[in-house]
Amino acid sequence: MNKAVFYHAGCPVCVNAESRITELVDRGRYNVEIVHLGEQRGRIAEAESAGVKSVPALVLGSDVLHINFGASMADVKG
Amino acid sequence: MNKAVFYHAGCPVCVNAESRITELVDRGRYNVEIVHLGEQRGRIAEAESAGVKSVPALVLGSDVLHINFGASMADVKG
Questions:
Q1: If you average pLDDT over residues A3-8, what whole number do you get?
Q2: Hey, which residues does A32 pair with through a beta bridge?
Q3: Cβ of A60 and B20 within 8 Å?
Q4: Which residues of B touch A21 (CB under 8 A)?
Q5: Can you tell me the distance from the alpha carbon of A15 to that of B22, in angstroms, rounded to the nearest whole number?
Q6: Cα(A33)–Cα(A16) distance, rounded to whole angstroms?
Q7: Mind giving me the DSSP string for A16-66?
Q8: Which stretch of DSSP H or E encloses residue B13?
Q9: Which of A29, A70, B59, B73 suits B52 as a labelling partner, its CA being 20 to 30 A distant?
Q10: Is A70 exposed, middle or buried (0-12, 13-18, 19+ CB in 10 A)?
């Protein structure tokens, strides 16, 4: 099973992207973890080190897919 | 079967996003059409009317997921 992590911050753009990505993904092959960085602030550093520049973003192995634009990581960090 | 259209312009960002999206998608539920707007210039207007502002982008029903940033539609149109 491949692992993917979807990082978001609860914004409307994030919520829409989350619903589209979760619909789209082949759940037989991918396990998608959803991380709300506003609520799980301890994971902001992990997201940044994976290359996340803005949310919503989906991390797949070494690649980051930034999906539309909800907020920058600077905004998320407040 | 749901339909999704992935618009790109052959750029490196596009190629990487295409391979990730095609890996990720549940092919049992989604039929993904890949459109290279540099080669199929007649479809630029269709992409714009679907809301595509930059490539690569994935159109799913009424939603557009802009995935990372390869080129603006102005660049694609030249």
A1: 97
A2: A4
A3: yes
A4: 65
A5: 22
A6: 16
A7: HHHHHHHHHB-TTTEEEEEEETTT-GGGHHHHHHHT--EEEEEEETTEEEE
A8: helix B12-24
A9: A29
A10: buried
* The predicted structure's pLDDT at residue B77: 93
- The residue ranges of chain B whose pLDDT is under 70 are none
Identify the DSSP state of A43: G
Token duo for residue B68: 């990372």
Residues from chain B that touch A26, judged by Cβ atoms under 8 A, are 24-28
Percent of chain B exceeding pLDDT 70 equals 100
Q: Do A25 and B27 touch (CB under 8 A)?
A: no
Q: Do A24 and B16 touch (CB under 8 A)?
A: no
CA–CA gap between residue A24 and residue B4 (Å, rounded)? 9
